[in-house]
Amino acid sequence: MTEAMDKLIPSLTNPEGQAGARVNLFDLDREGLERFFAETLGEKRFRAHQIMKWMYHQHVTDFGQMTDVGKALRSRLEQHCEIRPPNVVLDQGSSDGTHKWLLGMDTSNSIETVFIPDKGRGTLCVSSQVGCGLNCQFCSTATQGFNRNLSTAEIIGQVWTASKHLGNKTHHQRKLTNVVMMGMGEPLLNFDNVVRAMSLMRDDYGFGLANKRVTLSTAGLVPMIDKLSEVSDVSLAVSLHAPDDDLRTQLVPLNKKYPIAELLDACVRYALRKPRTSITFEYTMMKGVNDQPAHARALAQLMRKFDARVQREDAAKVNLIPFNPFTGTRFERSEEADIRAFQKILLDQKVLTMVRRTRGDDIDAACGQLKGQVMDKTRRQSEFKRKLEQQGVSDAA
Ligand code: SF4
């Protein structure tokens, strides 16, 4: 590297915008890292691949241990870069094999990441924001308000932390087989960082997961679903939770801006662009709220219509999620018999419908229970609302 380049590196800003801080290499996807090596360090692009293999396949964060990288380059990397995963504040295992990490994102905020092992697969539920501003009524995260978006490093760092803990071997004996962007936050409101992190999850030099094994779950930001379909091939899950607009608006206030018909139009466009992937519709089952036979029949009708528009049976999958209660909620979990009856109505209408088993109850790691520590949310909440207003979704939060 030339002297001029040495001078250039300290002028880079890290994702928090601190000029002169060391660049956290977890913030760069393969393309970004190749560019960084070529344009900033004056090195060959393949150096980026070597570093990525150390980072993501071997879980090495110390440049000194990267034995196939020359000493001079290693010392320059040490000087100007870092490989900094999130700080593990708490590491908790459940009796059913579920594992939860509380990860410190900065001095006052933390988020939760949960690993759920199942027959032949292991799924990691990853967060995209500290808190969430969309205010879905049945969601524990919503009670904390919104603080900030996570950086790419903070998102991929969740996968890295779990992968290291599990002794996951990329391309061999994988324990971590699937990632769902379904933790704290609305991933499509942190679009660039989420897309970059998902590309690292699927990159062969990263975690090497197949496209369909990475799922993004959204509350239904219609324009961003279209934008996602242009840049990524991941699976899509949509938080539906109600078969009609009146009820959905009560449960998911974003529905006021993007009602069900518009949301399903966007899902049809997504499914038509990704011919082999199904769209999963998440439906949280709440006693006496959305779990009656009439709801099931209306939902079945919506799903059948969706399959017909995509011209593929099983283009839509329904995932019934028994509600997980949390302190202060007014909702209750549906009775087991009502959930089974609801599922039967859908199955009888040939709608592929699964009931999600509740896991990690004893460590509050079940779906909808994730709750890190969100500080300073009042100021951030108004900032978030301002950003939503710019996107035309002011009445959603
Ligand atoms: S369900 Fe998802 S989008 Fe809705 S408030 Fe909770 S985290 Fe946000």
Description of the molecule:
The protein is of the alpha/beta class. The protein has two domains: about 5-80, DNA polymerase, domain 1 (Orthogonal Bundle); about 85-395, TIM Barrel (Alpha-Beta Barrel), CATH 3.20.20.70. The protein is built from twelve helices and 14 strands. The chain has helices at about 5-10, 30-40, 45-55, 70-80, 150-165, 190-200, 220-230, 245-250, 260-275, 295-310, 335-350, 375-390, and strands at about 25, 80, 85-95, 100-105, 110-120, 120-125, 130, 145-150, 180, 215-220, 235-240, 280-285, 315-320, 350-355. A ten-stranded mixed beta sheet has the order 3-4-5-6-9-10-11-12-13-14. It has a two-stranded parallel sheet with strand order 1-2. Strands 7-8 form a two-stranded antiparallel ribbon. Helix 11 (about 335-350) links the parallel strand 13 and strand 14 (about 350-355). The longest helix is centred in the C-terminal third of the chain and has 18 residues, at about 295-310. The chain is elongated, with a radius of gyration of 22 Å. It starts with a helix and ends in a 7-residue tail after the last helix. About 45% of the residues are buried. Residues about 1-15 have low confidence and may be disordered. Bound molecules: iron/sulfur cluster. Iron/sulfur cluster (SF4) binds near residues 132 and 142.
Total count of helical runs of at least 4 residues: 12
Mind telling me the CATH class of the largest domain?
Alpha Beta
Oligomer: single chain
* Mean pLDDT metric: 87
Main attributes?
alpha/beta; TIM Barrel; 2 domains; 14 strands; binds iron/sulfur cluster
